[in-house]
Amino acid sequence: MAGKCGACGPGYASPLEAMKGPREQLLYLPCIYRNTGIGAPDFLATVDVDPKSPRYCQVIHRLPMPHVGDELHHSGWNACSSCHGDPGKSRRFLILPSLVSSRVYVVDVATDPRAPKLHKVVEAEELARKANAAFPHTSHCLGSGEILISCLGDPDGNGKGTFVLLDGETFEVKGNWEKGGKIPNLGYDFWYQPRHNVLLSTEWGVPKVLAQGFDPKDVEKGHYGRHINVWDWRERRLVQELDLGTGSIPLEIRFLHDPGAAQGFVGCALSGDIRRFYRSPEGKWEAEKVIEVPSKKVQGWLLPEMPGLITDILISLDDRFLYFSNWLHGDVRQYDISDPRNPKLVGQVFLGGSISKGGAVTVVEDRELRDQPEPCVIQGKRIPGGPQMLQLSLDGRRLYVTTSLFSAWDRQFYPGLLKEGSVLLQLDVDTARGGLAVNPEFLLDFGKEPGGPCLAHEVRYPGGDCTSDIWL
Predict the structure, then answer these.
(1) pLDDT number for residue 7
(2) Which DSSP letter does residue 82 get?
(3) Which uninterrupted H or E stretch holds 262?
């Protein structure tokens, strides 16, 4: 949806203009059947979130993929606000990389936004042949009209922090984005900002290792990530590696939305901290810890200490609030980042997790809480899993939350999730003073799907959002 600018391209002229955009009426969520015991293909769910609609908070359409076992995960667009100045571009296709099969699905959401249809399948063989890449993860549209996708590894399942470039019209693989030189051993998420001539990428783990579940010994063996990788945007070369320490596992990375800001945040999953990254006066990139979530000493769990496991972060479009999820502890947090070096906790709510009262885990030492949190029950349903993927409304007033991370890890940490299915929740956000509250009227239970319980993952809006769109 374009702003009030006459003949312009997709998205909005600025993040603050985007905040004035229309309220979201539809959501797109990839839904996964891999590892659930149900031999059905993953599908893209279209959810009605218009409060005036008779089908509010319901799945109104399901687009099944043509294959079984893909593990749909994250998604992006063929064009976004990075192309806003090009009236020849439009946001017509959702890009759906498959984390396990390495296929990339291109879905037409423009012909009928309420009933998307499959437009093209980019097969894993093409990624392997043209880029020696596999396990695609994050996709971002570029100002050039091309699509950039980060990958976790090579076709044999080894770690490789490479990138694949897709043609924005034909969706053919053009090859690797990077132009020679060193390639990181691991890959995951990325964000770019041409104004500062930089792309920053993060590291999860070796695909063939993490696909089996999490083993702490694999961290010691170097199979999991610890770096923010700094790339020269114009030269497409790795120029710096910021070592965040063993066991950090930096996952989601977000620049501030203001394209003039040379800073942002990354969530370190295992070490349970948020690092602020920034460009120093000397032109080098650096990182500092600004938030720490202490591990809890526990009994009745896999390990004697339980990390929060920060698995998703996002920043409001006005760069005022940072949100993140602790998938294991079970809470979603809101921080005021008006001073990015000194974030202040202003909102917190528990939505399931592993330390709720009445569960198998007993917390024996906790540096943050006096008591274990009460279970989260909405409309009579105890919420399974823990808060994971987040998406914020353009105006910043509603935060959507899903509870599945990755089917192999769901199976390990929340086995009940595979039988119950995940959920989609909505939190009300106080944008004046800060604060989060569960909306008791909103619960979408993916355990009630016609094809059987499934695992819903990332949330996208048809008009773009604060984790898909980049302003140049």
Answers:
(1) 58
(2) G
(3) none
